[in-house]
Amino acid sequence: MIIRIAGLLLLVILAGCSTVSGWFSSDKTGKGPAKLVEFKQAATFNVRWHQKIGGSGDYILQPAITSDAVYAANAKGELFRLDPATGKQVWRVDSGFAISAGIGVGEGLVLVGGGKGQLAAFTVDGKLLWKTKVSSEVLNVAKIADGIVVVRTADGRLSGLDTTDGKRLWLYENTVPPLIVRSHAGVAIERGTIFAGFAAGKLAAISLGSGIVIWETVVSQPRGNTELERISDITSSPVLNDEQVCAVAFQGRVACYGLAQGDLLWSRDLPSDKGITLSHNYLYITNTSGAVLAVDKSSGSSVWKNDQLLMRQTSAPYAFGNHLIVGDYEGYLHALSREDGSMAARLKTDGSAILVTPMELDGGLLVQTRNGSLYSVTLH
Predict the structure, then answer these.
(1) With pLDDT > 70 as the criterion, what percentage of the chain qualifies?
(2) Is the pLDDT of residue 14 over 60?
(3) Rounded to whole angstroms, how far apart are CA atoms 227 and 305?
(4) CA end-to-end distance (rounded Å), the chain
(5) Which residues face 153 on adjacent strands?
(6) Residue 141 has what pLDDT?
(7) Contacts by 23-30, CB closer than 8 A, 24 or more apart
(8) 332 strand-pairing partners
(9) How are beta strands 239-240 and 244-248 bridged, if at all?
(10) What is the pLDDT of residues 43-57, one digit of tens each?
(11) Phi/psi class of residue 151: alpha, beta or left (left: φ > 0; alpha: ψ in -120 to 50)?
């Protein structure tokens, strides 16, 4: 059963619970996406290379970068290795299933996940090493650390798999409320600990070696009169440094906690379904309306806010040098000043949405669009 809400939200009955998917940047005023305005450019984007690999469909497919390769995938099931300097194809393999999540790299593995719970590990030469099945749809990048593959599935579970053969080492199960957001949130791993956000605003620290919970807390409590209003899921990956881990909930709060014991450092009402970035003294956030904000990482106090991209389905931000980089639904790449949030540069790509957070590549940036264009760009 599928129900459309305000033209933007979908309720889908899945495995005994309901999930909400689609774009959550609904504008209660009825206004459409903000129109881009001219500005005096303080920097310039330049395209180094452009390569087409095929579209991502309804999924968010994250490319991966190593010192000598760019890996990318399309929804049809094709996995590519490209030369990072030129964008030329080194090899292409067919995974044998429609890819819904990727790419994870590490310890000689290249990982992609599928909509029916498939997870495949390839070598850096494109040879299939192993293929396994996890509990449900894979929607985010699997992480690799200390001989363990950590994969998160749409049913709220985390699995720890052996990197050598894909066999399960442990399973973490999380209680799922009646209505959840179909989330592409991943995990962060630091010093043998996995940090992951879940439905109902839960943030947990989990042992990488055993899957046992070290601590858990609630970033945002459900509130409201209806199940839809009470959604407070964490729908983006946590971010961390040596001292703290921060997470943000859809229709809820952003909060930072001590890394070791999960003690609350600060929190404030600031909802996001796109994601956050922690860099130096600031936490950068794209909120549910598409505005980009900077807050002090030690207190949560506001530093600046740019609302020129409202309702443009602004991507999660990436901190790059003196700029903050985001994409939007029309395929524009924007550079904002990290000092005050002002617009510094803009680049039009292929006209399709930039859903994936831009990534750093050889002193520049790598951007993937929904229609499957990869751009290597510089910013000066």
Answers:
(1) 88
(2) no
(3) 30
(4) 50
(5) 138
(6) 93
(7) 23/313, 24/181, 24/250, 24/273, 24/288, 25/273, 25/288, 25/289, 25/290, 25/311, 25/313, 25/314, 27/289, 27/310, 27/311
(8) 348
(9) antiparallel
(10) 999 999 999 999 999
(11) beta
**Residue labelled with tokens 């399973």:** 171
Predicted local confidence at residue 23, as pLDDT: 40
Cα(229)–Cα(222) distance, integer angstroms: 8
> What is the 3-class SS of the chain, one letter each residue?
CEEEECCCEEEEEECCEEEEEECCCCCCCCCCCCCCCCCCCCCCEEEEEEEECCCCCCCCCCCEEECCEEEEECCCCEEEEECCCCCCEEEEEECCCCEEEEEEEECCEEEEEECCCEEEEECCCCCEEEEEECCCCECCCCEEECCEEEEEECCCCEEEEECCCCCEEEEECCCCCCEEECCCCCEEEECCEEEEECHHHEEEEEECCCCCEEEEEECCCCCCCCCCCCCCCCCCCCEECCCEEEEECCCCEEEEEECCCCCEEEEEECCCCCEEEEECCEEEEECCCCCEEEEECCCCCEEEEECCCCCCCCCCCEEECCEEEEECCCCEEEEEECCCCCEEEEEECCCCCCCCCCEEECCEEEEECCCCEEEEEEEC
**Tally of CB atoms within 10 A around 253:** 20
pTM above 0.85, yes or no: yes
pLDDT confidence tier of residue 230, bands split at 50, 70 and 90? low
Q: What is the pLDDT of residue 250?
A: 83
Would you state the structure tokens that stand for residue 31, as one six-digit string? 């206004």
Q: How far apart, in whole angstroms, are the C-alpha atoms of residue 197 and residue 267?
A: 15
Residue whose token pair is 């609904």 = 26
Largest CA distance in the chain: 55
pLDDT at residue 293 greater than cutoff 80: yes
Segment 77-119, tens digit of pLDDT: 999 999 999 999 999 999 999 999 989 999 999 999 999 999 9
According to the model, what pLDDT value does residue 28 have? Answer: 46
